[in-house]
Design a protein that fits this description.
The complex is a heterodimer of chains A (378) and B (552).
Chain A lengths: L9 H12 L6 E5 L6 H13 L12 H8 L5 E4 L10 H12 L8 E5 L7 H12 L5 E7 L7 H4 L3 E4 L5 H10 L5 H11 L3 H9 L2 H17 L2 H30 L11 H40 L11 H9 L3 H19 L4 H15 L8
Parallel strand pairs in A: 1-4, 1-5, 2-3, 3-4
Helix pairs in contact in A: 2-3, 4-5, 7-8, 8-9, 10-12, 11-12, 11-15, 12-13, 12-14, 14-15
Chain B lengths: L5 H4 L12 H12 L6 E5 L6 H13 L13 H8 L5 E5 L6 H11 L9 E6 L6 H12 L5 E7 L7 H4 L3 E4 L5 H14 L3 E2 L1 H10 L4 H15 L2 E2 L1 H8 L4 H13 L2 H13 L4 H21 L10 H12 L3 H17 L6 H17 L3 H17 L11 H5 L5 H9 L5 H22 L1 H7 L3 E6 L2 E6 L1 H11 L2 H15 L4 E6 L12 H12 L1 H10 L13
Parallel strand pairs in B: 1-4, 1-5, 2-3, 3-4, 6-7, 9-10
Antiparallel strand pairs in B: 8-9
Helix pairs in contact in B: 5-6, 8-9, 9-10, 9-11, 12-13, 12-14, 13-17, 14-15, 14-16, 16-17, 21-22, 21-24
Classes of the chains: A alpha/beta (378), B alpha/beta (552).
Chain lengths: 378, 552
């Protein structure tokens, strides 16, 4: 009940609720699980539950404290994140955190310290933290969040109570998108599949206008499958232009998207921010390309599955089921499989900064080769 | 008293309580018995298998006033002090925190003072791999020749990070991972003493998941007790650990064997709908197929697999329906999938494709199988009597789908016996044989390029040359080695033994290899034939060769 708006994770939230109700809250938690499933959301939520002024069930989300925690300006809740180009948590930040832990709370009942991406702590930082983890000051709760518990020292893990988070079932993401975000059913299914069980990925895809982009990319593929070699070069050119454009505007787009993230906690040095932006811009364009390949891969996956199982298994691109069935008759099983592998390879090549047009041409030729009688398809 | 976690409560206090490390307990006990205790030990091995416990037990025995059978008595002053953590002679240092050169210098300074009460001053440095290079170097001299009353016990999970100079000054003892059945036994003992009920499969699952580490197993049991209360069932463990239950794995294996793609995909859908970790799912599959492989290879002589009898029966049934080579292929394909799943674009698609591939893999004829069948075919052909007097001996073989070209030609030829037709046969394979010869020894092609077959009867092939070349070329070709190569190429293609002799062909210049007159008439026939044209259209093919062989 404290965590009622959290999607999935009933068991994890149940453990925490029970601990709160019975007054047996541990002083150090380790939330581990895949990226983007809602670990941080649960952690912030816990901070609110512990501090909210409303005395009823769960945080009100409207009182001053809840709002300030949400905005990251509440003095007794500290979120430590990896910083800088290398995205690390250095020993100085841990020192700062320890000073914060030893101070008396300004106004809260329980101070909450959240360390996001705790596996990014440098070895010396981890070791410095050990004493605090073992015996934190009274009325303080430490929450370490990590997607890579294997990268944490065993000494750190053994001092925490570990709560592991699973991937969110795709059906639940679908339901969430439809009920809360009012996404149309077919679209929700595509987003849920692309998100791979990571709800924040799903939200990101949604806010990026996936529907529009998706139909764009799929149209590329459709026109490729009915076109000739000349059409292919045209498509490659258009894709190239699109990504060049994106590179130019990337920083602006990041500034825009920042609004969606809940804010940076305290004032960072400006150049540090710039470094972060550059790295982020790169990874954003990378993500865009991955998305494109992902959309294509799902398309071919549907073709493959239609070929193998007919209409018995649900496909993801339901809207296009007619075309997909036609396409599935035009290629061999191994040919479709080749296409799917080629898409994956192309993605890897681009990761290693291979030339975009070359990779795309190679991919498209492979795809065209595997679909015979292209003209007759669509 | 505050709550003590199981792993600490059940920490072994004697060598005899150490589990799965008998070799180490024996070594250390014997060294005490014979008075050959080294001054420095390095305990290496993965987490939670007893390194620190061993170091503590060993230290206690050495300082115990009344050791009994090389075990600490647990009652004398020294033993009591150690267990309450107040001993000043046994110093346990966390190497991860005290890793600087200054920390090590502190040790070096205190080494020279005699122990206060016991016989030895013992330094236990845990996580010693975290000590800095300078720290290690500061320790080198002390470690080589410490005063007689000093012992060093190092414990580490990463012995390779310890400099070689340190390692060479220590006796190194490697700890083993603890086998599943020993962990299960220990867990059962703990559960009994803690007065908790637990299903055995649940404990087996925990033990497997602990991956050889007793501490991990005990912490998991601890968590299970707070999660599930007094009664631990298998399904609680499955739910807590997020692992994939065996029904799902059995379902998918069954569907793969039956080649039911729809059912396979339904299972994958279930995996994702339940939010299971795909990586765990794949490793579960690998483990299951590994069991099947063991069944398939070992049959009844199986070692215990920690499977319940009914699961074992099921697995046995699956194993009998798959070839060993297929199982091997499946496992190696799954291992590949496991390695690449982290970088997959869409994990779900990746997984679906991977399992669909398993179905194909099952039906795929392995290359070993093909080779086997070819070998058998070859044996049959070789064993057959001379082609002159055989009628039907190898004809069934020729009809097999895997039959290869030379055999076809041979089979076609068997009915005719006239020397003329035989020569035609030679002509047909002439270019092919030449190509084969040139692959074996390119220079021979150069000599043979001006030659042509003259006659072929009684297995003797006469190769003729123009007069202008004959001496030079024939001399070069006549070495035994060259003759052997040529004979081999022809006999391979003709399917009988061939003796080659060289002659000169004078006026027989009209012998054409490419096509005889008869064949060219035939080829006209063929191109006009509507059925042939239909075939050509259907396969988008063209005619490359027309010959008479098929008419026999």
């Amino acid at each position: 009940m404290y965590f009622k708006e959290i999607v999935s994770h009933e068991r994890q939230c149940g453990i925490l609720s029970e601990a709160i109700d019975n007054g047996r809250l541990a002083h150090t938690y380790l939330f581990c699980g895949p990226d983007g499933v809602g670990k941080k959301l649960v952690a912030v939520r816990l901070a609110k539950v512990l501090n909210c002024m409303a005395e009823n069930n769960g945080p009100c989300n409207t009182c001053g404290i809840c709002r300030r925690i949400e905005e990251g300006i509440y003095p007794d809740v500290k979120i430590l994140k990896p910083r800088g180009k290398d995205r690390i948590i250095n020993v100085e930040s841990v020192g700062e955190l320890q000073r914060f832990a030893n101070q008396k709370a300004y106004e809260s009942k329980i101070k909450v310290i959240i360390i996001d991406d705790a596996h990014r702590m440098r070895p010396d930082a981890s070791n410095k933290l050990l004493k605090t983890l073992e015996e934190p000051p009274a009325k303080t709760v430490l929450i370490l969040i990590t997607s890579r518990p294997d990268m944490l020292f065993a000494t750190v893990i053994s001092r925490c109570q570990a709560i592991s988070f699973n991937l969110v079932p795709e059906a639940e993401i679908e339901r969430y998108l439809m009920d809360v975000r009012e996404v149309e059913a077919g679209e929700a299914r595509v987003i849920a599949s692309l998100s791979g069980g990571r709800i924040s990925e799903a939200i990101k895809l949604l806010s990026d206008g996936l529907a529009e982009k998706r139909s764009g990319y799929i149209n590329f593929m459709k026109s490729l499958l009915k076109g000739n070699a000349a059409a292919m070069f045209d498509i490659v050119k258009r894709l190239k232009e699109q990504f060049e454009e994106m590179e130019k505007n990337s920083v602006k787009m990041i500034m825009k998207s920042k609004k969606l993230d809940y804010g940076e906690f305290s004032g960072n040095a400006v150049d540090e921010l710039e470094d972060e932006f550059k790295a982020e811009a790169m990874s954003m364009i990378q993500a865009e390309k991955e998305e494109m390949f992902g959309i294509w891969q799902l398309w071919f996956r549907d073709i493959l599955i239609t070929k193998e199982c007919g209409a018995e298994v649900n496909i993801i691109n339901k809207k296009d089921s007619g075309e997909i069935r036609l396409l599935s008759e035009k290629a061999e099983y191994s040919g479709i499989m080749d296409c799917i592998c080629a898409i994956d390879n192309a993605r890897k090549m681009l990761r290693y900064h291979a030339d975009l047009s070359m990779v795309m041409e190679d991919l498209f030729i492979t795809i065209m080769k595997n679909f015979k009688n292209r003209e007759a398809v669509i | 008293m505050s709550y003590l976690v199981l792993a600490r409560k059940w920490r072994p206090q004697k060598f005899d309580e150490l589990i799965g490390q008998e070799h180490i307990a024996k070594t250390l006990k014997n060294s005490i018995k014979t008075g050959r205790v080294a001054h420095a030990y390095l305990f290496a091995g993965s987490r939670g298998i007893g390194k620190t416990s061993t170091a503590r037990i060993f230290a206690r025995v050495l300082n115990c006033q009344k050791p009994h059978n090389q075990e600490p008595c647990g009652k004398c002053q020294s033993c009591v002090e150690v267990s309450s953590g107040s001993s000043i002679d046994i110093i346990e240092i966390d190497g991860a925190s005290n890793n600087k050169v200054d920390d090590i210098r502190d040790i070096r300074e205190t080494v020279q003072y005699m122990p206060a009460k016991g016989k030895f001053k013992i330094y236990i440095i845990d996580e010693v791999h975290m000590v800095t290079t300078q720290g290690f170097n500061a320790l080198l001299k002390t470690l080589e020749e410490p005063p007689g009353h000093v012992k060093f016990f190092f414990a580490t999970t990463a012995p390779l990070k310890v400099p070689i100079t340190i390692r060479s000054r220590c006796q190194r003892l490697d700890f083993r991972k603890i086998p599943v059945h020993l962990i299960v036994e220990k867990l059962e003992e703990i559960v009994k003493k803690e007065k908790i009920k637990a299903e055995k499969p649940a404990l087996i699952l925990i033990a497997k998941f602990a991956d050889g580490s007793m501490r991990d197993a005990q912490s998991m049991l601890d968590q299970m007790i707070s999660f599930a209360g007094e009664n631990i069932r298998e399904k609680d463990v499955v739910s807590m650990l997020g692992i994939v239950d065996k029904e799902m794995i059995q379902d998918i294996v069954k569907s793969v064997i039956e080649g039911d793609a729809v059912a396979v995909l339904k299972v994958i859908e279930k995996v994702f709908d339940m939010g299971k970790d795909p990586g765990t799912f794949i490793s579960g599959l690998i483990e299951y197929f590994r069991n099947l492989l063991l069944f398939s290879v070992l049959g009844k002589n199986m070692p215990a697999l920690e499977l319940s009898p009914e699961d074992e029966k099921k697995a046995c049934g699956f194993a009998s329906r798959l070839e060993t080579s297929v199982l091997k292929d499946i496992i190696s394909s799954l291992v590949d999938v496991e390695a690449r799943i982290g970088s997959a674009l869409s994990v779900r698609t990746f997984l679906e494709i991977a399992v669909l591939e398993l179905i194909k893999l099952k039906d795929r004829v392995s290359i070993d199988n093909v080779i086997n069948r070819l070998e058998k075919l070859k044996e049959k052909i070789e064993a057959s009597p001379n082609r002159e007097d055989n009628n039907s001996g190898e004809r069934p073989a020729a009809r097999q789908s895997l039959v290869s070209e030379p055999v076809t030609r041979y089979a076609k030829k068997d009915n005719s016996s006239s020397a003329e037709v035989e020569l035609d046969g030679v002509k047909k394979i002439w270019h092919e044989a030449m190509a084969g010869i040139s692959r074996m020894k390119p220079i021979l092609k150069a000599y043979l390029v001006e030659s042509r077959p003259v006659s072929f009867s009684d297995d003797v092939l006469v190769i003729g040359f123009d007069e202008s070349f004959q001496n030079m070329h024939i001399d070069a070709l006549r070495t035994p080695e060259n003759v052997k190569i040529i004979e081999r190429q022809f006999s391979m293609r003709l399917g009988c033994s061939v003796k080659v002799s060289f002659g000169f062909c004078g006026g027989q210049k009209n012998v054409k290899i490419e096509s005889t007159e008869e064949e060219s008439i035939l080829s006209d026939d063929v191109t006009k034939n509507p059925h042939v044209n239909q075939v050509l259209d259907l396969f988008n093919a063209k005619i490359t060769d027309v010959n008479l062989g098929g008419r026999g």
